[in-house]
Amino acid sequence: MNTAEFLTIAAAICPDKDAIVFEGKRYTFSQLNERVNRLGNALSDLGVEKGDRVAMLQVNTNQCLETYFAVARLGAIYVPLNYRAKGDELTYMLNSSEANTLLVGERYIDLANSIKSGLASVKNFISLDSRHAGMLYYEDMIKSSRADDIFTEIDDAETTILMYTAGTTGFPKGVMLSHNSFAIYVLENVSPADPESEEKNILTVPLYHVAGIQAMMAAIYGGRTLVIERQFDPKEWMRLVETEKVSRA
Q: Hey, is 18 helix, strand or coil?
């Protein structure tokens, strides 16, 4: 099964249910689906095509989830970068993956600018949180794009994520993960979306780690509300669990 369909299915079953809660913002499955379509069409207009690599340098946010599904719908490959990596490691990962697009969170703007000259393949730089010179702004792209559905023929065995290892014995190694590798896990362990379900998940595991990606996909396919924390903070975690009535961590 193509993982891009997880959101499509959930949005059809429970369109008005909250899909994401993040720092005071709430998006229903219908709203999330529209934002993903708008982002996917905007990336397509930039020249992102099937098989291209799109990299993300950001802590956990709704943008990471939106970008993954937008990229997946295009048949492109999502490259989540370890936000703790140093400049030389990021340069290596971006060059070895041949990423042509890089999305950058606010706290990493200076770092991204410092390695720009050494990036051989990146043509599109996108700022996620505010406008910066030499970069497109994420929200501007979404607002100005179209919400048309995206249709790309994708085989289940094709790579959907290029995830890098920790690189404990050298530079990180890229691991190719297929749509099917995630779909098998999700379909075996998660019930399909149910508009009557009130289950809520909280996500604190980094979305550059396979456990974070699996948790995100499981929540979306299951039609669960996903409460996102940028990075784990015990007091904030407890507050979110209590106020949002989280049922699964």
A: strand
CA torsion through residues 54, 181, 186, 214, sign: negative
CB atoms within 10 A of CB 162: 21
Assign 216 to helix, strand or coil. Answer: helix
Q: Cβ(19)–Cβ(225) under 8 Å?
A: yes
- Per the DSSP assignment, residues forming a β-bridge with 52 are none
Q: Is the dihedral of CA 247, 195, 10, 137 positive or negative?
A: negative
DSSP H helical ranges for the chain: 4-13, 29-45, 62-74, 87-97, 109-115, 138-144, 179-189, 210-221, 234-244
Return averaged pLDDT per consecutive 10 residues of the chain, 249 residues in all: 96 98 98 99 98 99 99 99 96 98 98 98 99 98 98 96 87 95 96 94 97 97 98 96 94
- Other beta carbons within 10 angstroms of residue 8's beta carbon come to 19
Question: Which of the listed CATH numbers 3.30.720.120, 2.115.10.20, 3.90.180.10, 3.40.50.12780 matches domain 4-244?
Answer: 3.40.50.12780
Rounded Cα distance, 42 and 40, in Å: 5
Q: In what order do the strands lie in the sheet with 174-178?
A: 136-137, 124-127, 101-104, 53-57, 77-80, 159-164, 174-178
pTM of the predicted model as reported, rounded to 2 decimal places: 0.96
